Amino acid sequence: MDPFMQAAIDEATAGLDEGGVPIGSVLVHRGEIIGRGHNRRQQQSSAILHGEMDALERAGRQPASVYRESVLYTTLSPCSMCSGAILLYGIPKVVVGENQTFMGEEAHLRARGVEVEVLDDPTCQGLMASFIEAHPDVWNEDIGEP
């Protein structure tokens, strides 16, 4: 297992343990994790704290050059909001744990020059499948479904 994806999975598990949606992310610059986060929408009644957004927030302000040399790892395919942040900050590569549960804006990211690698990780898939089965109302709220 890639240690950075494992760190993202650890974040997803932390979010689940807090009562949230199990999606985690880490921002890696030159082989070092500079930001880690997980979906905190439930825990903080936040409209924007998806895993990727939380990792970016926790990385703090960085020079543009840092983002342009970074890789974002996320356990689930990034939504429109998170993909917009990836594009805004010029992050050149995203490693996705799985996209079977939710297909985010991967095509848009690729069209804009971002390298997207999908791992089809069974741990990421299992976390989401179990959560959705147990909490379909929370999942549907998070992704905007009825």
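(the above was protein one; protein two follows)
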Amino acid sequence: MKNRVREKRIEQGWSQDTLSERVGVSRQTINSLENGKYNASLLLAHKLAQIFGCFIEDLFIFEGDESI
């Protein structure tokens, strides 16, 4: 699954530290998320969407089946 977290964060002019504090996770979690090494939980995805003022679907791009 790809995401637009880095793009949205940069649009806001926020560092990874700033975003991590706003959503209550570590900076390492934000880094792993942005680099595709971590898939956000539904709760984290919801928090990120709220922070950025968008829908979850605007942040996360599902590619193919991904064995749902």
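Reviewer note on protein two: Residues 1 and 67 are 12 Å apart (CA to CA).
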